[in-house]
Amino acid sequence: MQLGIEGRHALVCASSKGLGRACAESLAREGCQLTLVARTESTLHATAQAIRAATGVQVTAVVADITTPAGRGLVLQACPQPDILVTNAGGPPPGDFHDWTREDWLAALDANMLTPIELIKATVDGMVARRFGRIVNITSSAVKAPIDVLGLSNGARAGLTGFVAGIARKTVAHNVTINNLLPGPFDTDRLRGNAAKAASHSGRTLEQELEQRRQANPAGRFGTPAEFGDACAFLCSAQAGFITGQNLLMDGGAFPGVL
Description:
Number of helices: 8
Helix content: 40-55%
Distance between the termini: 28 Å
Shape: globular
Structural class: alpha/beta
Largest sheet: 7 strands, parallel
Radius of gyration: 18 Å
């Protein structure tokens, strides 16, 4: 399927590795011109060069912390009028809610709720004026099935979900859609890092821990970043104009509910 977004400009946050990079790669294969954002300069520039070499598209790399006003300013200066926006930021650390301070909550809200909202606010009017826009927020499967030790993430991402549910119904009449992608267990550095910590506490090897997690999933495996990236690309496609305000859960069937 040709997704009809060749030549569109896509701004992809936290895109030097993991799921953000996978989204950027899938959009690049569809011919989108990219602006990539991440905090680590060496990783970001290596990713940008790899995508240029593989696809031939124009890739602009911006080293910035997207969760800060200064970082967003740099990014929007480089890409003030994206046709496609993919928001993404690392989740806050796990823990016990008794230990979280007001500052912990504000940091979580800044990164995982307010930053996407600020980026939407800065770009959506231009999309409406041009009669095309696709916004995809990478959130978490914890929005559907909260994880007790991830309360900071549960709360912040649920707040973003509520905000999107309202605004997405206002922009769709102008061919601007806003949706959320909810990843479960994908084979990324983050998943392996968390598994390594769990293995050190359980006495299992890393591979034993990973295999136990694979087998606990109905699919019997982890998702691949490429699968996630292609789902993102479809939500950004010309054909996806009738999909808005939705939460697409990608977890291999782990969530047992019907809705």
